[in-house]
Amino acid sequence: MAMSRTGLRRAGTVTAVAAASVLLAAGAASAHVTVHPESYAKGATDGVLTFRVPNEEDTASTTKVQVFLPTDHPVLGVLVHPQNGWTAKVTTTKLKKPVKTDDGTITEAASAITFTGGKIGAGQYEDFNIAFGQLPDDTDQLVFKTLQTYSDGKVARWIEEPAGGAEPENPAPVLKLTAGDASGAPAPAKTASASTAGAKAAGTSDSTARGLGIAGLVVGVLGLAAAAFAIVRSRAARS
Q: Checking DSSP bridges between strand 141-143 and strand 87-101, what pairing results, if any?
């Protein structure tokens, strides 16, 4: 019987470690600030970017969000959608290289947008919508470094750019710019299958997909634990 109890303890320990690893990995993958859609056509006009800000803390609330816009490849004609409970401040910067458009030469552009006054509680997220007049056509991506301030004074710095295909620990939101129709519609995303395309067309969010994947992994871990428990009990009965 002592051997059986040892086996049960080991099975329980393995299960707990596996479940914790799954949940920790899932949390790390879904907690950062992201921009939606993931891509637009180069030079796209009259579109909207949505910055999704989740709260990754257990008790503190997010009370300030700062999104920094690149000025070497500026986003022109930025407008902020009114957000209930939040006040938005747009900071503009004089461009080192003016941009020529059909409406004239642009010498200044938005360099930062700061949202204050609202609150994102634990286990919640907020979407901040920003309209633009025109995206640049001379780069393949735009990196929007973001600072997320919590009520306890902690600041999450989402400022790291991807390198070598691996996601950094504190990734900045990145918008891919592709060749295609610049009418303002998001660039069509590459999909591995028709079912994936259908899911995106239906507006399935990244957080929902991750949540379903997490649930499946947890169920698998619990199934393995039940099987291990049954084997140990069977051996104990025979002994």
A: unpaired
Token pair in block for residue 166: 């691996």
> Which pLDDT value is given to residue 162?
82
In sequence order, which residues have a C-beta less than 8 Å from that of residue 209 and are 6 or more positions away?
199
To the nearest 10 degrees (0 to 180), the angle between helices 2-30 and 206-238 is 180
Contact 173, 144 (CB under 8 A): yes
Tokens 């507006």 sit at which residue?
Answer: 203
| CB proximity list for 172: less than 8 A, separation 6 or greater | 33, 143, 144, 145, 146, 158, 159, 160, 161
Within 13 A of 122's CA, how many CA atoms are on the CB side? Answer: 6
Main-chain dihedrals φ then ψ at residue 140, nearest 5 degrees? -95, -10
Give the whole-angstrom CA distance, residue 119 versus residue 138.
37
| pLDDT of the residue at 15 | 42
pLDDT at 47: 98
Query: Rounded distance, CA 121 to CA 33, Å?
Result: 15
Q: Residue 116 carries which side chain, given as an amino acid letter?
A: T
Q: What is the C-alpha to C-alpha distance for residues 75 and 48, in angstroms, rounded to an integer?
A: 11
